[in-house]
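Hi F.,

I've been meaning to write this up properly since the lab meeting, where we talked about keeping a consistent format for the predictions we share between groups. The idea is simple: the sequence comes first, exactly as it goes in, then the structure tokens exactly as they come out, then a line or two of notes. No screenshots and no reformatting. I'm using this chain as the first example so we have something concrete to point to.
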Amino acid sequence: MKPRAKWIDQTILTSHVYIGLCVTQEQLEYEYKRLCCGGTCEFAKPGCGNAVELIGKNGANCNIVSVNLSESSMTDIVGVIAHEAVHVYQNIMDYIGEKSPGAEIEAYIIEKITRNLFDAYQEMTKPKQPVACGEIRTPVPCGASDDAASYTAPTG
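Output, unedited:
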């Protein structure tokens, strides 16, 4: 066996800051209710996104991004997600009291938030594949409809 290094997780900071993505009005309403925020939640208009900062029951900083991009081009999708990632970054900096982070750190954090949101978006919006009889389905991503987990292919 070669004497290789044990590489650790690349996460530099763990905190009480959470980022969630909603691609439907129902998902957004569910999260508002679950986090006990009260009030109303406005889902993004078609072709747009929205980032909302909430303080959860346990005092955690929760940033919920909603995007309504089903009719958008890939370029528009990436642009809207990157735009909302900047708002999430700004919310986080306000939350932790950081007034002047370095430009390179800022770029890396926004890149990480953007990538995570985009990966979540792709996972949540990929076309659902019919499940063959007896096939085990993988868990549904956070925020996706519970109905998708129990979907079975029609018979006959």
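Notes:
The first strand starts at residue 17 and ends at 22.
The beta strands are 17-22, 48-55, 61-68.

If this format works for you, I'll send the rest the same way.

G.
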